[in-house]
Amino acid sequence: MVKANAYGHGLPLIGAWAAADGADCLAVATVSEGFALRRAGVESPILLLGPFAPDEARGLVRARLTPLLWDRTHAERLARVAEAEGIRLSVHLKVDTGMARWGVAAESAPTLARAVQTLPSLSLDGVASHFATADEKESFARDQLERFLQVCRRLPSGLTRHIANSAAIFALPGAALDLVRAGLALYGVPPFEDGQPGGLRPVLTWKSWVATLRDLAAGEGVGYGHHFRARRPSRIAVVPVGYGDGLPWGAEGASMLVRGRRAPLVGRISMDSSFLDVTHLPSVAVGDEVVVLGSQGEENLTAWEWARWGRTIPYAILTGIGHRVARLPRRTLALTRPRVSE
Q: Which of 57, 66, 42 is nearest to 127 (CA)?
């Protein structure tokens, strides 16, 4: 699963790596994401999980994306375009088993499958569904799985079946079927808030740096609205990362890592900067590396922790990391900015 800029990790970088490392196929949500992978040189099959507009059909066909279909009108339109392009396009059927989002109703799936098979420019190769509660209510997820398997038994044989997301991979082994769609777990983040399953290691480290230091007297404020006022003489590190880069604006109780220690975030997060109280870290200097998300020394900040601070979910934290934050392979992550004096 490399949709949403590979869960914030960088679509071309992660997509090319996954394809080269043996992924059977990649999955995106939009046609434009599929185009980006093709431009990056990815030749593997690419599943298009979301809908496509009529004017995207020709590009979809030419890029040989594999769409999930749940509507006969869309299937027939796509077939006409594929025929005009001289291409037999691989497609999968999407069945709604309880998510109530994309998908043909379970009882109507066999009829749609037969209709798709009558279109010579389309090749019906797979069938999919999606869990609504695999990370929360296992009983309903089991009901969905059984419903999906019942539908599959009424469809043509030989279709590639897939329904399991990250949570189901661990919580419902019977849902693995022919393909699994690893999402959050692929990036080393547990799909469950309690941290299970163990053994996953986040692949992303989000770094910034100390751009300047400010000494506040007791009672002095910092940032918009002076939301924070120092109760004692304090040293504040100003870090060039803000909500324009993806930090949750209303995060409360958050920290970043400096010199291997947690430094509490104080004041309002600005669009382009944040403030850290480093009074307890007198050796902090301009140019020091700041870890926003990830590990430094013995400390670690997780996407789940930021989700709690921002009253959201880890998916939103990761996919919200802005495009102006550079995505670099880990071997090039050493801070390259020279240390400067104030």
A: 66
